[in-house]
Amino acid sequence: MLSWIIKNQLAEVLIGRANAQSFMPTQASEIAKSVDSLYSFLLIISLIACVIVIGGMIYFAYKYRRRSANDKTAYISHDTRLEILWSVIPLVIFLFVFAWGWIIYHDMRTMPKEALEIQVIGRQWAWVAEYKNGVQSNVLVVPVKRDIRLVLSSPDVIHSFYVPSFRIKQDVVPGRYTSLWFRAEVMGEFHVFCAEFCGTSHSGMITKLRVVSQTDFDKWLIEEADSSLLPPVEYGKKLFTTKTCASCHFEDQPGVKIGPTMKGLFGLENHEMVDGTTVTADENYLRESILASQAKVVKGFGPRSAMPAFQGQLSEKELSAIIEYIKSIK
Ligand SMILES: [Cu+2]
Fold it and tell me: Could you tell me which CATH number the domain at 116-226 has?
């Protein structure tokens, strides 16, 4: 059984077809295929080198083993031809691998001209994609067989945007833009991870990249754009996720995620703050809690709030919708 698995695995690697069924993620782009070919090549070369070096060592240890007490070890200082050979051959292989790797890297880093551009914001702890028509979404939806360019930024700490199926990864750095491109060759859903430790819920900073047909993509964009026409409570519920609130707050169940739950918050009297004062959780309290989270910090969460201040991050309409939504959670 084991040998069957190993043989089949090896056969797949050898013909450069490491796919989802073996040990590599799906190859969803051309670049993924070229990265895998290089990887397989490195693996095969390493295996061959391993067999030559370790095999040779075992063979010579056996062949020249000491057979009797008066066996003498031959004195050999060096062999110039052999030394040149074992230096030059690896050098050629390394240069070849370097050139191959550079070509792939160059492809990855050269942004296509006619690409569809999407802003992607990585923040503690969610991904938000912003489309040209203003749509914001936690799930990154893109059309198939089209060059996509992502412009990445972060308002807080360094994150890293990583899509294993595309073999692409890019740091997202506060204070500057970085970018990344890909072209999905197949439709489907793929994982997006944050690959740079960024705090408590780093491991939960996961989302999906959904590749759909161009028609479905256009339809989706229009449907999403209409969401600001939703009734405030529903629009607020959507924003609660897209604005990353949901990664720190439970909505309709009690308990603490990173921050307190929203359940039963509105209208709460004698709500205790960290400095010993109490407040009534009315609209203005909610407004201040969201825009300037440090102003009043809930007891048990201080002295400083782990919540980012959303001043300047939400439009008046979005803020009101979120407050209406929180009010609706009884
Ligand atoms: Cu992160």
Answer: 2.60.40.420
